[in-house]
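Letters spell out the chain; backbone shape is given numerically. Take this protein:
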Amino acid sequence: MDLQARPFRNTYKGFLLFQYMQQVQTIKQKITGDMTIGQVFEQFPQKANQLAEVMTANGLHCVGCHVNVYETIEEGTMGHGMSKKELDNLLTVMNKVLTQKEEKIEGIQLTKAAVAKVKELIKKEKKQGMGLRVAMERGGCAGFNYMLYFDKKMATDKVITQDGVELLLQPESLERLQGTEIDYADGLQGAGFKFNNPNAKKACGCGHSAGF
């Protein structure tokens, strides 16, 4: 404890002031305009997918390109013709994402959009009677790649059924995917399945690779 803090902590009012100062310190913005997108993903890997979606939705479309390692968020927004007010709004939303508490989910879970897309693919590719295997394989820019493909059940599979879709997981994959939400998005930046994995220690901006 700082020696200068001792005198006013000896009184009740001083103690309250000290607590208030600590609270102010904790609510200061963690993400600032002078940070690069790469730095944001490195410091907050568990929120990387959500932050990437926020930036893309707000007009910052260089999330997945090579410039994100040296171009700051402020430089990126200005380069896209955004105003200072739009930058401030973006930072506010990004920092709000950091404070959102995530509920621990047993196993893994598909969003409604993901369920609908899987059912569409089952019908289109004639994969009735097969399950959707969710796995992680070594590779990718963060260490492990997310894998999704239709497959037959194995004796060692953990089977999770959601809205008529069977998810097949091997124990080693389930350990890394515990609590993961799988979403499907179709936008200007392309379509695909997105993984929100609370176990990831680092993540790639593409949303298809994670490290543990």
Observations:
- Residues 1-9, 23-27 have pLDDT under 50 and may be disordered.
